[in-house]
TrEMBL record, chain A:
This is Sarcosine oxidase subunit delta. Pfam families: SoxD. It comes from Acetobacter peroxydans. Gene3D superfamilies: Folate-binding superfamily. One of its GO terms (molecular function) is sarcosine oxidase activity. The lineage of its organism: Bacteria, Pseudomonadati, Pseudomonadota, Alphaproteobacteria, Acetobacterales.
Length: 101, 417
Protein backbone atom coordinates (compact mmCIF):
# COMPACT_ATOMS: atom_id res chain seq x y z
CA UNK A 1 0.00 0.00 0.00
CA UNK A 2 1.28 3.48 -0.83
CA UNK A 3 2.00 6.08 1.81
CA UNK A 4 0.71 9.36 0.44
CA UNK A 5 1.37 12.81 1.79
CA UNK A 6 -1.73 14.97 1.67
CA UNK A 7 -0.48 18.60 1.58
CA UNK A 8 -3.16 19.45 4.15
CA UNK A 9 -3.24 16.43 6.50
CA UNK A 10 0.21 14.84 6.18
CA UNK A 11 1.10 11.22 5.48
CA UNK A 12 -1.79 8.78 5.31
CA UNK A 13 -2.42 5.28 3.95
CA UNK A 14 -3.44 4.87 0.32
CA UNK A 15 -6.89 3.50 1.26
CA UNK A 16 -7.87 7.03 2.30
CA UNK A 17 -7.27 8.36 -1.22
CA UNK A 18 -8.75 8.16 -4.71
CA UNK A 19 -6.56 8.63 -7.77
CA UNK A 20 -7.80 11.27 -10.19
CA UNK A 21 -5.69 10.53 -13.26
CA UNK A 22 -3.27 12.74 -15.15
CA UNK A 23 -2.84 16.23 -13.68
CA UNK A 24 -2.70 19.61 -15.41
CA UNK A 25 -5.29 18.79 -18.08
CA UNK A 26 -7.02 22.15 -18.32
CA UNK A 27 -10.68 22.26 -19.20
CA UNK A 28 -10.91 24.08 -22.54
CA UNK A 29 -11.63 27.78 -22.01
CA UNK A 30 -13.84 27.93 -25.08
CA UNK A 31 -15.29 24.44 -25.65
CA UNK A 32 -17.27 25.51 -28.72
CA UNK A 33 -14.05 26.42 -30.48
CA UNK A 34 -12.60 22.90 -30.28
CA UNK A 35 -12.72 20.46 -33.17
CA UNK A 36 -13.35 16.74 -32.64
CA UNK A 37 -9.66 15.89 -32.56
CA UNK A 38 -9.00 18.43 -29.81
CA UNK A 39 -11.96 17.13 -27.81
CA UNK A 40 -10.66 13.58 -28.13
CA UNK A 41 -7.25 14.72 -26.89
CA UNK A 42 -8.83 16.51 -23.94
CA UNK A 43 -11.24 13.73 -22.97
CA UNK A 44 -9.44 10.51 -23.75
CA UNK A 45 -5.80 10.69 -24.81
CA UNK A 46 -3.32 10.31 -21.97
CA UNK A 47 0.46 10.33 -21.56
CA UNK A 48 0.54 7.13 -19.53
CA UNK A 49 4.30 7.50 -18.94
CA UNK A 50 6.70 4.81 -17.77
CA UNK A 51 8.67 7.12 -15.51
CA UNK A 52 7.64 10.39 -13.89
CA UNK A 53 3.92 11.17 -13.86
CA UNK A 54 2.09 14.23 -12.59
CA UNK A 55 -1.23 13.01 -11.28
CA UNK A 56 -4.19 14.08 -9.18
CA UNK A 57 -5.21 12.48 -5.92
CA UNK A 58 -8.17 13.22 -3.70
CA UNK A 59 -8.06 12.68 0.04
CA UNK A 60 -11.49 11.11 -0.21
CA UNK A 61 -11.68 9.69 3.33
CA UNK A 62 -9.92 12.65 4.92
CA UNK A 63 -10.12 16.33 4.17
CA UNK A 64 -11.79 15.60 0.82
CA UNK A 65 -9.47 17.89 -1.11
CA UNK A 66 -7.74 17.37 -4.44
CA UNK A 67 -3.98 17.79 -4.79
CA UNK A 68 -1.28 16.84 -7.27
CA UNK A 69 1.67 14.50 -6.98
CA UNK A 70 4.83 13.60 -8.88
CA UNK A 71 5.53 9.87 -8.84
CA UNK A 72 7.74 7.46 -10.74
CA UNK A 73 5.53 4.76 -12.26
CA UNK A 74 8.46 2.32 -12.49
CA UNK A 75 8.84 2.22 -8.70
CA UNK A 76 5.69 3.95 -7.35
CA UNK A 77 7.96 6.23 -5.28
CA UNK A 78 6.61 9.75 -4.82
CA UNK A 79 8.89 12.70 -5.42
CA UNK A 80 6.48 15.18 -3.86
CA UNK A 81 2.88 16.26 -3.56
CA UNK A 82 1.73 19.82 -4.15
CA UNK A 83 -1.39 21.92 -3.99
CA UNK A 84 -3.92 22.27 -6.76
CA UNK A 85 -3.28 25.27 -8.99
CA UNK A 86 0.49 25.15 -8.67
CA UNK A 87 2.38 24.41 -11.88
CA UNK A 88 4.19 21.10 -12.27
CA UNK A 89 7.35 21.58 -10.18
CA UNK A 90 10.82 21.19 -11.63
CA UNK A 91 12.79 18.53 -9.83
CA UNK A 92 16.51 17.96 -9.53
CA UNK A 93 18.26 15.01 -11.22
CA UNK A 94 18.99 13.70 -7.70
CA UNK A 95 15.28 13.73 -6.83
CA UNK A 96 14.48 11.92 -10.10
CA UNK A 97 17.19 9.33 -9.44
CA UNK A 98 15.92 8.79 -5.91
CA UNK A 99 12.38 8.19 -7.19
CA UNK A 100 13.60 5.75 -9.82
CA UNK A 101 15.55 3.73 -7.29
CA UNK B 1 8.03 -30.04 -35.93
CA UNK B 2 7.59 -33.11 -33.76
CA UNK B 3 3.96 -34.12 -33.86
CA UNK B 4 2.42 -34.81 -30.46
CA UNK B 5 0.19 -37.88 -30.15
CA UNK B 6 -0.31 -40.89 -27.93
CA UNK B 7 1.89 -42.76 -30.37
CA UNK B 8 4.75 -40.21 -30.21
CA UNK B 9 4.54 -40.29 -26.41
CA UNK B 10 4.83 -44.07 -26.49
CA UNK B 11 7.80 -43.98 -28.88
CA UNK B 12 9.60 -41.37 -26.79
CA UNK B 13 8.98 -43.46 -23.69
CA UNK B 14 10.92 -46.31 -25.31
CA UNK B 15 13.86 -43.93 -25.66
CA UNK B 16 13.58 -42.77 -22.02
CA UNK B 17 12.24 -39.41 -23.27
CA UNK B 18 15.67 -38.36 -24.53
CA UNK B 19 14.40 -37.67 -28.05
CA UNK B 20 12.22 -34.57 -27.48
CA UNK B 21 13.47 -31.51 -29.36
CA UNK B 22 13.13 -27.80 -28.54
CA UNK B 23 9.73 -26.64 -29.66
CA UNK B 24 10.83 -23.51 -31.46
CA UNK B 25 14.07 -22.33 -33.00
CA UNK B 26 16.18 -19.92 -30.99
CA UNK B 27 17.47 -17.30 -33.42
CA UNK B 28 19.46 -14.11 -33.74
CA UNK B 29 17.64 -11.35 -35.61
CA UNK B 30 18.17 -11.01 -39.37
CA UNK B 31 18.89 -7.55 -40.82
CA UNK B 32 15.39 -7.19 -42.26
CA UNK B 33 11.92 -8.70 -42.23
CA UNK B 34 8.69 -8.03 -44.07
CA UNK B 35 6.82 -7.83 -40.78
CA UNK B 36 7.93 -7.36 -37.18
CA UNK B 37 5.54 -8.06 -34.33
CA UNK B 38 6.52 -6.22 -31.14
CA UNK B 39 5.56 -8.28 -28.08
CA UNK B 40 5.82 -12.03 -27.67
CA UNK B 41 2.70 -12.61 -25.59
CA UNK B 42 -0.16 -14.79 -26.78
CA UNK B 43 -1.57 -12.03 -28.99
CA UNK B 44 1.74 -11.29 -30.75
CA UNK B 45 2.74 -14.93 -31.23
CA UNK B 46 -0.74 -15.74 -32.47
CA UNK B 47 -0.65 -12.86 -34.95
CA UNK B 48 2.62 -14.22 -36.37
CA UNK B 49 1.07 -17.68 -36.59
CA UNK B 50 -2.00 -16.48 -38.51
CA UNK B 51 0.10 -14.25 -40.79
CA UNK B 52 2.04 -17.36 -41.80
CA UNK B 53 -0.84 -19.80 -41.78
CA UNK B 54 -3.66 -17.81 -43.36
CA UNK B 55 -1.88 -15.15 -45.35
CA UNK B 56 1.10 -17.13 -46.61
CA UNK B 57 3.64 -14.65 -45.27
CA UNK B 58 6.84 -16.15 -43.94
CA UNK B 59 9.46 -13.42 -43.46
CA UNK B 60 8.25 -12.44 -39.99
CA UNK B 61 9.88 -11.85 -36.61
CA UNK B 62 8.33 -11.62 -33.15
CA UNK B 63 10.48 -9.43 -30.91
CA UNK B 64 10.06 -9.86 -27.15
CA UNK B 65 11.86 -7.86 -24.50
CA UNK B 66 11.78 -10.56 -21.83
CA UNK B 67 11.14 -14.23 -22.13
CA UNK B 68 8.38 -15.63 -24.23
CA UNK B 69 4.92 -14.93 -22.80
CA UNK B 70 6.23 -13.64 -19.46
CA UNK B 71 3.84 -10.68 -19.51
CA UNK B 72 0.11 -10.82 -18.93
CA UNK B 73 -0.13 -14.12 -20.78
CA UNK B 74 1.67 -15.68 -17.81
CA UNK B 75 -0.14 -13.64 -15.19
CA UNK B 76 -3.81 -13.82 -16.00
CA UNK B 77 -6.60 -15.93 -14.54
CA UNK B 78 -7.55 -17.42 -17.95
CA UNK B 79 -11.27 -16.76 -18.01
CA UNK B 80 -12.64 -17.21 -21.50
CA UNK B 81 -16.17 -16.12 -22.38
CA UNK B 82 -18.02 -14.16 -25.05
CA UNK B 83 -21.11 -12.83 -23.25
CA UNK B 84 -20.39 -9.13 -23.84
CA UNK B 85 -23.27 -6.74 -24.36
CA UNK B 86 -22.86 -4.91 -27.65
CA UNK B 87 -23.03 -6.54 -31.08
CA UNK B 88 -19.53 -5.32 -31.96
CA UNK B 89 -17.98 -6.85 -28.85
CA UNK B 90 -19.88 -10.07 -28.70
CA UNK B 91 -19.03 -10.84 -32.32
CA UNK B 92 -15.34 -10.15 -31.63
CA UNK B 93 -15.24 -12.27 -28.45
CA UNK B 94 -17.39 -14.99 -30.01
CA UNK B 95 -15.01 -15.14 -32.98
CA UNK B 96 -12.30 -15.82 -30.44
CA UNK B 97 -14.30 -18.36 -28.45
CA UNK B 98 -14.97 -20.34 -31.64
CA UNK B 99 -11.24 -20.40 -32.39
CA UNK B 100 -10.55 -21.60 -28.83
CA UNK B 101 -12.91 -24.50 -29.41
CA UNK B 102 -10.67 -25.90 -32.16
CA UNK B 103 -7.29 -24.59 -31.04
CA UNK B 104 -5.76 -27.72 -29.50
CA UNK B 105 -6.45 -29.66 -32.69
CA UNK B 106 -5.32 -26.84 -34.95
CA UNK B 107 -2.01 -26.36 -33.13
CA UNK B 108 -1.48 -30.04 -32.25
CA UNK B 109 -0.85 -28.70 -28.76
CA UNK B 110 -3.08 -29.24 -25.77
CA UNK B 111 -4.14 -25.78 -24.60
CA UNK B 112 -6.35 -27.47 -21.99
CA UNK B 113 -9.42 -25.45 -22.93
CA UNK B 114 -12.00 -26.55 -20.40
CA UNK B 115 -15.57 -25.36 -21.03
CA UNK B 116 -16.76 -25.53 -17.45
CA UNK B 117 -19.04 -22.50 -17.70
CA UNK B 118 -18.87 -19.00 -16.30
CA UNK B 119 -21.47 -17.87 -13.81
CA UNK B 120 -21.81 -14.13 -13.25
CA UNK B 121 -23.77 -13.61 -10.07
CA UNK B 122 -26.14 -10.76 -9.30
CA UNK B 123 -26.50 -9.15 -5.88
CA UNK B 124 -28.70 -6.14 -6.53
CA UNK B 125 -31.77 -5.31 -8.58
CA UNK B 126 -29.51 -3.36 -10.89
CA UNK B 127 -27.28 -6.42 -11.38
CA UNK B 128 -30.30 -8.55 -12.19
CA UNK B 129 -31.52 -6.08 -14.81
CA UNK B 130 -28.09 -5.65 -16.38
CA UNK B 131 -27.36 -9.38 -16.57
CA UNK B 132 -30.79 -10.20 -17.97
CA UNK B 133 -30.20 -7.56 -20.60
CA UNK B 134 -26.92 -9.30 -21.39
CA UNK B 135 -28.66 -12.67 -21.60
CA UNK B 136 -31.24 -11.35 -24.08
CA UNK B 137 -28.72 -9.42 -26.16
CA UNK B 138 -26.42 -12.43 -26.35
CA UNK B 139 -29.20 -14.79 -27.36
CA UNK B 140 -30.33 -12.46 -30.13
CA UNK B 141 -26.76 -12.75 -31.39
CA UNK B 142 -26.81 -16.54 -31.19
CA UNK B 143 -24.48 -16.63 -28.18
CA UNK B 144 -25.39 -18.92 -25.31
CA UNK B 145 -26.19 -17.26 -22.01
CA UNK B 146 -28.97 -18.14 -19.59
CA UNK B 147 -30.51 -16.86 -16.38
CA UNK B 148 -30.40 -18.99 -13.22
CA UNK B 149 -32.47 -18.49 -10.09
CA UNK B 150 -30.64 -18.61 -6.72
CA UNK B 151 -31.69 -22.26 -6.30
CA UNK B 152 -30.37 -23.11 -9.77
CA UNK B 153 -27.17 -21.22 -8.96
CA UNK B 154 -26.74 -23.42 -5.88
CA UNK B 155 -27.35 -26.59 -7.87
CA UNK B 156 -24.84 -25.57 -10.51
CA UNK B 157 -22.20 -24.48 -7.99
CA UNK B 158 -22.82 -26.01 -4.53
CA UNK B 159 -20.05 -24.15 -2.62
CA UNK B 160 -21.90 -20.84 -3.08
CA UNK B 161 -23.79 -19.42 -0.13
CA UNK B 162 -27.27 -18.40 -1.29
CA UNK B 163 -28.49 -17.41 2.16
CA UNK B 164 -30.53 -14.17 2.06
CA UNK B 165 -28.81 -13.04 5.24
CA UNK B 166 -25.38 -12.21 3.89
CA UNK B 167 -24.23 -8.68 3.13
CA UNK B 168 -24.73 -9.09 -0.62
CA UNK B 169 -27.17 -11.98 -1.13
CA UNK B 170 -27.17 -13.86 -4.43
CA UNK B 171 -30.28 -12.93 -6.41
CA UNK B 172 -29.46 -15.10 -9.42
CA UNK B 173 -26.83 -15.44 -12.09
CA UNK B 174 -26.10 -15.40 -15.80
CA UNK B 175 -24.47 -18.60 -16.98
CA UNK B 176 -22.53 -19.02 -20.21
CA UNK B 177 -21.95 -22.78 -20.45
CA UNK B 178 -19.45 -22.57 -23.32
CA UNK B 179 -17.18 -20.31 -21.29
CA UNK B 180 -14.16 -21.81 -19.57
CA UNK B 181 -10.48 -21.66 -18.79
CA UNK B 182 -7.30 -22.68 -20.62
CA UNK B 183 -3.66 -23.25 -19.82
CA UNK B 184 -2.11 -19.80 -20.30
CA UNK B 185 1.44 -20.89 -21.19
CA UNK B 186 0.25 -23.59 -23.55
CA UNK B 187 -1.49 -21.09 -25.80
CA UNK B 188 1.67 -19.05 -26.23
CA UNK B 189 3.89 -22.10 -26.60
CA UNK B 190 1.52 -23.72 -29.08
CA UNK B 191 1.43 -20.60 -31.27
CA UNK B 192 5.21 -20.15 -30.97
CA UNK B 193 5.91 -23.73 -31.96
CA UNK B 194 3.57 -23.68 -34.96
CA UNK B 195 4.76 -20.24 -36.12
CA UNK B 196 8.42 -21.15 -35.76
CA UNK B 197 7.80 -24.27 -37.80
CA UNK B 198 6.50 -22.12 -40.68
CA UNK B 199 9.64 -19.95 -40.59
CA UNK B 200 8.71 -17.17 -38.16
CA UNK B 201 11.72 -15.99 -36.13
CA UNK B 202 11.05 -15.67 -32.40
CA UNK B 203 13.57 -13.35 -30.78
CA UNK B 204 13.58 -13.22 -26.99
CA UNK B 205 15.44 -10.85 -24.67
CA UNK B 206 15.34 -8.12 -27.29
CA UNK B 207 13.63 -4.86 -26.33
CA UNK B 208 12.33 -2.50 -28.98
CA UNK B 209 13.65 0.95 -28.07
CA UNK B 210 12.66 2.96 -31.14
CA UNK B 211 10.60 2.92 -34.31
CA UNK B 212 12.39 4.29 -37.37
CA UNK B 213 10.55 6.07 -40.15
CA UNK B 214 11.22 7.36 -43.64
CA UNK B 215 11.03 11.11 -44.38
CA UNK B 216 7.66 10.40 -46.03
CA UNK B 217 6.38 9.01 -42.71
CA UNK B 218 6.11 5.27 -43.20
CA UNK B 219 7.90 2.88 -40.86
CA UNK B 220 11.27 1.45 -41.89
CA UNK B 221 12.10 -0.71 -38.90
CA UNK B 222 12.85 -0.82 -35.19
CA UNK B 223 15.79 -0.04 -32.94
CA UNK B 224 16.38 -2.78 -30.41
CA UNK B 225 18.79 -3.72 -27.66
CA UNK B 226 20.25 -6.20 -30.20
CA UNK B 227 20.63 -3.50 -32.86
CA UNK B 228 18.42 -2.12 -35.63
CA UNK B 229 16.11 -4.39 -37.62
CA UNK B 230 14.42 -3.25 -40.81
CA UNK B 231 10.78 -3.98 -41.52
CA UNK B 232 8.13 -2.90 -44.01
CA UNK B 233 5.33 -3.35 -41.50
CA UNK B 234 5.27 -3.30 -37.71
CA UNK B 235 2.50 -4.71 -35.55
CA UNK B 236 2.58 -3.62 -31.91
CA UNK B 237 0.99 -6.03 -29.41
CA UNK B 238 2.70 -4.93 -26.21
CA UNK B 239 -0.23 -4.99 -23.73
CA UNK B 240 0.69 -2.82 -20.69
CA UNK B 241 3.55 -1.18 -22.60
CA UNK B 242 1.49 -0.17 -25.65
CA UNK B 243 1.65 3.56 -24.83
CA UNK B 244 5.42 3.34 -24.43
CA UNK B 245 6.02 1.55 -27.73
CA UNK B 246 3.51 3.58 -29.74
CA UNK B 247 5.00 6.74 -28.26
CA UNK B 248 8.17 5.84 -30.16
CA UNK B 249 6.24 6.64 -33.34
CA UNK B 250 4.68 9.76 -31.85
CA UNK B 251 1.24 8.24 -31.31
CA UNK B 252 -0.72 9.00 -28.14
CA UNK B 253 -3.30 6.45 -27.12
CA UNK B 254 -6.38 6.56 -24.89
CA UNK B 255 -4.75 4.15 -22.44
CA UNK B 256 -3.93 4.00 -18.76
CA UNK B 257 -1.63 1.23 -17.55
CA UNK B 258 -2.76 -0.14 -14.19
CA UNK B 259 -1.58 -3.04 -12.06
CA UNK B 260 -4.00 -5.93 -11.83
CA UNK B 261 -3.39 -8.63 -9.25
CA UNK B 262 -4.25 -12.30 -8.88
CA UNK B 263 -3.54 -14.99 -6.34
CA UNK B 264 -3.75 -18.75 -5.95
CA UNK B 265 -4.39 -20.99 -2.97
CA UNK B 266 -2.67 -24.17 -1.96
CA UNK B 267 -3.83 -27.03 -4.23
CA UNK B 268 -6.84 -29.02 -3.05
CA UNK B 269 -9.00 -31.79 -4.49
CA UNK B 270 -11.64 -30.86 -7.07
CA UNK B 271 -14.02 -28.64 -5.12
CA UNK B 272 -15.18 -25.88 -7.43
CA UNK B 273 -16.92 -26.90 -10.66
CA UNK B 274 -17.12 -23.66 -12.61
CA UNK B 275 -15.98 -20.04 -12.82
CA UNK B 276 -17.87 -17.64 -10.59
CA UNK B 277 -17.64 -13.88 -11.09
CA UNK B 278 -19.20 -11.08 -9.12
CA UNK B 279 -18.91 -7.55 -10.45
CA UNK B 280 -20.59 -5.94 -7.48
CA UNK B 281 -18.41 -7.25 -4.70
CA UNK B 282 -15.49 -7.69 -7.04
CA UNK B 283 -14.42 -11.28 -6.88
CA UNK B 284 -13.91 -14.14 -9.21
CA UNK B 285 -12.68 -17.63 -8.71
CA UNK B 286 -12.07 -20.91 -10.50
CA UNK B 287 -10.03 -24.03 -9.78
CA UNK B 288 -7.01 -24.89 -11.87
CA UNK B 289 -6.27 -28.42 -13.03
CA UNK B 290 -3.49 -28.53 -10.45
CA UNK B 291 -6.11 -27.89 -7.75
CA UNK B 292 -5.30 -24.30 -6.82
CA UNK B 293 -8.13 -21.83 -6.43
CA UNK B 294 -7.34 -19.09 -8.90
CA UNK B 295 -8.62 -15.75 -7.67
CA UNK B 296 -8.62 -12.44 -9.45
CA UNK B 297 -8.39 -9.22 -7.50
CA UNK B 298 -9.28 -5.70 -8.52
CA UNK B 299 -7.30 -3.08 -10.37
CA UNK B 300 -5.02 -0.74 -8.46
CA UNK B 301 -6.43 2.66 -9.35
CA UNK B 302 -3.31 4.48 -10.55
CA UNK B 303 -0.87 4.34 -13.45
CA UNK B 304 1.99 2.00 -12.68
CA UNK B 305 4.44 -0.27 -14.44
CA UNK B 306 5.59 -2.08 -11.30
CA UNK B 307 3.67 -5.37 -11.73
CA UNK B 308 2.95 -5.16 -7.99
CA UNK B 309 0.00 -3.30 -6.49
CA UNK B 310 -1.14 -3.03 -2.88
CA UNK B 311 -2.12 -5.88 -0.56
CA UNK B 312 -5.42 -4.26 0.40
CA UNK B 313 -6.74 -4.97 -3.11
CA UNK B 314 -6.50 -8.80 -2.92
CA UNK B 315 -7.55 -8.64 0.76
CA UNK B 316 -10.81 -7.01 -0.31
CA UNK B 317 -11.39 -9.77 -2.84
CA UNK B 318 -10.72 -12.49 -0.28
CA UNK B 319 -13.29 -10.96 2.06
CA UNK B 320 -15.83 -11.23 -0.73
CA UNK B 321 -14.82 -14.78 -1.68
CA UNK B 322 -15.05 -16.09 1.86
CA UNK B 323 -18.49 -14.61 2.31
CA UNK B 324 -19.70 -16.14 -0.97
CA UNK B 325 -18.01 -19.50 -0.36
CA UNK B 326 -17.60 -19.95 3.40
CA UNK B 327 -15.78 -23.27 2.90
CA UNK B 328 -12.74 -21.35 1.63
CA UNK B 329 -12.22 -19.57 4.93
CA UNK B 330 -9.48 -21.95 6.03
CA UNK B 331 -7.78 -22.20 2.64
CA UNK B 332 -4.23 -20.84 2.60
CA UNK B 333 -3.12 -18.53 -0.16
CA UNK B 334 0.14 -19.55 -1.77
CA UNK B 335 1.23 -16.86 -4.24
CA UNK B 336 0.09 -13.46 -5.46
CA UNK B 337 1.38 -11.34 -8.32
CA UNK B 338 0.49 -8.45 -10.59
CA UNK B 339 0.48 -7.65 -14.28
CA UNK B 340 0.21 -4.34 -16.11
CA UNK B 341 -3.04 -3.90 -17.99
CA UNK B 342 -3.71 -1.30 -20.69
CA UNK B 343 -7.18 0.10 -20.14
CA UNK B 344 -9.25 2.19 -22.54
CA UNK B 345 -12.00 4.58 -21.36
CA UNK B 346 -14.72 2.38 -22.89
CA UNK B 347 -13.11 -0.91 -21.77
CA UNK B 348 -13.01 -2.11 -25.38
CA UNK B 349 -9.81 -2.90 -27.29
CA UNK B 350 -8.15 -1.33 -30.30
CA UNK B 351 -7.13 -3.59 -33.21
CA UNK B 352 -6.38 -1.23 -36.04
CA UNK B 353 -4.25 0.59 -38.57
CA UNK B 354 -2.75 3.84 -37.32
CA UNK B 355 -2.07 7.23 -38.84
CA UNK B 356 1.52 6.08 -39.49
CA UNK B 357 1.75 4.01 -42.70
CA UNK B 358 2.95 0.47 -42.00
CA UNK B 359 2.26 0.70 -38.25
CA UNK B 360 -0.54 -1.37 -36.71
CA UNK B 361 -1.64 -1.72 -33.12
CA UNK B 362 -3.50 -4.29 -31.08
CA UNK B 363 -3.94 -2.97 -27.55
CA UNK B 364 -6.40 -1.84 -24.91
CA UNK B 365 -7.30 -5.40 -23.93
CA UNK B 366 -6.81 -4.29 -20.38
CA UNK B 367 -7.97 -6.73 -17.78
CA UNK B 368 -9.73 -9.07 -20.19
CA UNK B 369 -7.75 -9.95 -23.28
CA UNK B 370 -6.66 -13.51 -22.61
CA UNK B 371 -10.03 -14.76 -23.83
CA UNK B 372 -9.42 -12.85 -27.06
CA UNK B 373 -5.98 -14.35 -27.72
CA UNK B 374 -6.76 -16.39 -30.86
CA UNK B 375 -9.45 -14.00 -32.07
CA UNK B 376 -7.41 -10.82 -31.72
CA UNK B 377 -4.33 -12.53 -33.16
CA UNK B 378 -6.38 -13.73 -36.11
CA UNK B 379 -7.91 -10.33 -36.88
CA UNK B 380 -4.69 -8.42 -36.19
CA UNK B 381 -2.94 -10.66 -38.72
CA UNK B 382 -5.72 -9.91 -41.23
CA UNK B 383 -5.42 -6.17 -40.62
CA UNK B 384 -1.64 -6.22 -41.11
CA UNK B 385 -1.69 -8.50 -44.15
CA UNK B 386 -4.46 -6.64 -46.02
CA UNK B 387 -3.76 -3.17 -44.69
CA UNK B 388 -7.41 -2.92 -43.74
CA UNK B 389 -9.49 -4.27 -40.87
CA UNK B 390 -11.67 -7.36 -41.03
CA UNK B 391 -15.37 -6.42 -40.65
CA UNK B 392 -15.33 -7.81 -37.08
CA UNK B 393 -12.55 -5.52 -35.84
CA UNK B 394 -13.45 -2.55 -38.06
CA UNK B 395 -15.25 -0.70 -35.19
CA UNK B 396 -12.26 -1.13 -32.85
CA UNK B 397 -10.23 1.83 -34.09
CA UNK B 398 -8.38 4.66 -32.33
CA UNK B 399 -10.58 7.08 -34.26
CA UNK B 400 -13.68 5.96 -32.38
CA UNK B 401 -12.58 8.23 -29.55
CA UNK B 402 -12.69 11.17 -31.93
CA UNK B 403 -15.90 10.14 -33.66
CA UNK B 404 -17.74 9.30 -30.46
CA UNK B 405 -18.50 5.74 -31.59
CA UNK B 406 -17.43 4.24 -28.26
CA UNK B 407 -18.19 0.62 -27.44
CA UNK B 408 -18.96 0.93 -23.76
CA UNK B 409 -18.42 -2.44 -22.16
CA UNK B 410 -17.86 -1.15 -18.66
CA UNK B 411 -20.76 -3.25 -17.40
CA UNK B 412 -19.43 -6.43 -19.00
CA UNK B 413 -15.86 -5.75 -18.01
CA UNK B 414 -16.33 -3.91 -14.73
CA UNK B 415 -14.82 -6.77 -12.81
CA UNK B 416 -11.28 -7.22 -14.01
CA UNK B 417 -11.16 -10.66 -15.58
C1 LIG C 1 -3.90 -10.53 -12.97
C2 LIG C 1 -4.52 -10.56 -14.32
C3 LIG C 1 -5.66 -11.33 -14.54
C4 LIG C 1 -6.23 -11.38 -15.80
N1 LIG C 1 -7.30 -12.22 -15.98
C5 LIG C 1 -7.83 -12.35 -17.22
C6 LIG C 1 -8.88 -13.29 -17.44
O1 LIG C 1 -9.30 -14.02 -16.54
N2 LIG C 1 -9.42 -13.39 -18.69
C7 LIG C 1 -8.97 -12.60 -19.71
O2 LIG C 1 -9.51 -12.72 -20.81
N3 LIG C 1 -7.95 -11.72 -19.54
C8 LIG C 1 -7.37 -11.57 -18.33
N4 LIG C 1 -6.34 -10.69 -18.13
C9 LIG C 1 -5.91 -9.83 -19.25
C10 LIG C 1 -4.98 -10.56 -20.20
O3 LIG C 1 -3.93 -11.17 -19.48
C11 LIG C 1 -4.37 -9.58 -21.22
O4 LIG C 1 -5.38 -8.78 -21.79
C12 LIG C 1 -3.70 -10.35 -22.34
O5 LIG C 1 -2.84 -11.36 -21.84
C13 LIG C 1 -2.89 -9.42 -23.22
O6 LIG C 1 -2.32 -10.28 -24.16
P1 LIG C 1 -0.86 -10.25 -24.66
O7 LIG C 1 -0.53 -11.63 -25.00
O8 LIG C 1 -0.79 -9.25 -25.74
O9 LIG C 1 -0.03 -9.70 -23.39
P2 LIG C 1 1.42 -9.98 -22.84
O10 LIG C 1 1.59 -11.43 -22.54
O11 LIG C 1 1.64 -9.02 -21.74
O12 LIG C 1 2.35 -9.64 -24.07
C14 LIG C 1 2.89 -8.37 -24.36
C15 LIG C 1 4.37 -8.55 -24.49
O13 LIG C 1 4.96 -7.37 -25.03
C16 LIG C 1 6.27 -7.30 -24.52
N5 LIG C 1 6.82 -5.97 -24.69
C17 LIG C 1 6.43 -4.82 -24.08
N6 LIG C 1 7.21 -3.79 -24.47
C18 LIG C 1 8.10 -4.29 -25.36
C19 LIG C 1 9.18 -3.72 -26.10
N7 LIG C 1 9.49 -2.42 -26.00
N8 LIG C 1 9.91 -4.54 -26.92
C20 LIG C 1 9.61 -5.86 -27.01
N9 LIG C 1 8.61 -6.45 -26.34
C21 LIG C 1 7.86 -5.68 -25.51
C22 LIG C 1 6.08 -7.69 -23.06
O14 LIG C 1 7.31 -8.11 -22.47
C23 LIG C 1 5.06 -8.80 -23.15
O15 LIG C 1 5.63 -10.10 -23.14
C24 LIG C 1 -5.72 -10.61 -16.88
C25 LIG C 1 -4.57 -9.83 -16.66
C26 LIG C 1 -3.96 -9.80 -15.41
C27 LIG C 1 -2.73 -8.98 -15.21
ZN1 LIG D 1 -6.16 15.65 3.47
Amino acid sequence: MLLIKCPYCGERAEVEFANGGEAHIARPADPMALNDEQWAQYLYMRDNPKGLIAERWRHAHGCGRFFNALRDTRTDRFVMTYEMGQPRPDITPEQAAEAAR
Amino acid sequence: MQKFSAFSLFRQALGAHQGWKPQWRSVKPKAAYDIIIVGGGGHGLGAAYYLAKQHGLRNIAVVERGWLAGGNTARNTTIIRSNYLFDESSSYYEHSLKLWEGLSQELNYNVMFSQRGCLMIAHTVHDVQVFKRHVYANRLNGIDNEWLTPQEVKEFCPPLNISPNIRYPILGGALQRRAGTARHDAVAWGFARAASDMGVDIIENCEVTGITRAPSGEVTGVETTLGPIKARKIGVSAAGHSSVVMGMAGIRLPLQSNPLQALVSEPVKPAFPTIVMSNTIHAYISQSDKGEMVIGAGTDGYVSYTQRGGLHIPAHTLEAITELCPMFRRLRMMRSWGGITDNTPDRSPITAKTSVPGLYVNCGWGTGGFKATPGAANLFAWTIAKDEPHPINAPFTIERFREGALIDEAAAAAVAH
